[in-house]
Amino acid sequence: MINEFPPVLQGIIRDHDDLRSAFAALIKTGMEVERKEYEVVRKIVTSLEKHLREIDELVGRHVRKEEEGVFPVLRTVLSAREEPGNTIFEVLEAEHDHLEKALASLASMCASIGSGADVSPERVDLVVTKLRVVEAEFLSHFMKEEKSVYGRAGEVLTEDDIGRIEQALDSL
Question: Which of 33, 54, 92, 155 is a good FRET partner for 146, with 20 to 30 A between their CA atoms?
Answer without folding.
Answer: 54
